[in-house]
Amino acid sequence: MLTSWTRAGIGRQCFPLRSFARIPSTRFIHPKPAVVAPVKKSWVDQMPSTVQPYLNLTRIDKPIGTLLLFYPCTWSITMASYALELPLTTPLTYIGLFGLGALVMRGAGCTINDMWDKDLDKAVERTRNRPLARGDITQKQALVFLGAQLTVGLGVLLNLNWYSIALGACSLSVVTIYPFMKRITHWPQAVLGLAFNWGAMLGWSAVAGTVDWTVCLPLYAGGVCWTLVYDSIYAHQDKLDDVGAGIRSTALLFGENTRPILAGLSVSSISLIALAGYLNAQGLPFYTGTGLAAVQLAQILRRTDFNDRASCWKGFVDSGWAGFLIWMGAMADYTMMLLQLPAVAQ
Question: Which terms are listed as keywords in the entry (predicted)?
Answer without folding.
Answer: Transferase
